[in-house]
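help with this record:
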Amino acid sequence: MNAMPPSVDRRDLSPDLSISRVITGLWQLADMERDGRIVDLDRAAAAMRPYAEGGFTSFDMADHYGPAEVVAGLFRSRAPDQRVQFLTKWVPKPGRVSKAEVRAAVERGLTRLGVESIDLLQYHAWNYADASWLETLFDLQDLRNQGLIRHLGLTNIDTAHLRVAVASGIEVVSNQVSFSLLDQRAAGGLAPYCVEQGVQLLAYGTLAGGWLTERWLGAPEPHWERLSTWSLMKYARFLRIAGGWSALQRVLKAAASVGARHGVSIANVASRFILDQPGVAGVIIGARLGEREHIDDTLRLFSLALTDDDRSEIRAALATLQPMPGDCGDEYRKPPFLTASGDLSHHFDSMPAPYQTVTRDRGRTLCLSGTTWEGVAGFARAVRQGPRVVVSGTTATMGDRVIGGNDPAAQAHFVIDKIEGALQSLGATLADVIRTRVYVRNIADWEAVARAHGARFRAIQPANTLVAAALVGDEYLVEIEAEADVGRGGG
């Protein structure tokens, strides 16, 4: 077993999983196969060895990053003496995934990586309004308990839904999100919640796909439609929201000034600034295996200690930027889609409706969740008649589980997700909601529930009533009903 070079910092995601604080990202293997090109698997696997030998023993990949998992498995088989950690992701298509399909996906990852247990499996959900994302998480936790997964993580999950997962008993050790000088969303509510709960952040996009390097300092503005890599295309959308080319130059000048004082690169400064943020366990820096590497330069960031003056200079530049919209992961769930293509067409073809709908007489369409109580009590989850949609009183129920545990805010967020799912199934959105009624079991929970409601409806501001009431079932802390009017051109 090789000893770890002392120059590379490490962090424990758990007592039995230590990672290098700079994680080598293998996303660009997919880009290297763009336009019909084929990656030389042997060359790519051999190119992993210098990273591992340099102390960068942790590698981040995903089931859809081209041949990344296969390359990693090939490297492991040829360098069994190297102590490495494989952090992979599973990104299934939207909609319910059966237990058998969940197991098959995990077993496929095991086969590709050539391991008996995946070090860290990070799960991505597309649509919170479809409660099946949580069902899949519970299925993954079962596989972790069976030993097929060592640790479970999440990727691109926002603060509210990390809270829903954690409060529901999902044991996650990490959340991988975009976090850079250009994208400071994670520093808002997510990082403090992660620190509070012991969930560690893994930051990707830290170099903004290569924009935060000397190459672009003082360079003329490029032709945005002629960029050479998916990484540059993706993060070009971020920097244009942040304020465009002049905004990037302000950030690069500040980072270059700090770097000059310490004799390090802009990339070192950008990475160190994020590594120093509360809750951040590591940053992910992409590699084009077999084409080029930046190992020596990256090593310098571990000797870099930013001063208060350094941080003040950087923050002064960041204060001139326009903030990224929403919370972490929103770029994959709502416009503007900050992906390489600018939409989600390269991820899936369509978004299935969360619930079944049936057409009845009088021009009504019913949304049915399948619960036995719909038949027993004679009601529907929601009803649409013309432009009007009415959603029944909704609790944090998912099958035989109560989601959100004893956390009233987590329950409220899940309830609103279910309401959103019913609206989506009937051709409406949360933006169409004109009234909500909120019932809390304990009046002491009113503020936590109201704040959750505010987080979801702040830009919509429907009429609202909140009262304390006796709810059916001691485990339920909140119940919400909603009315929506799709109106002209809505839905």
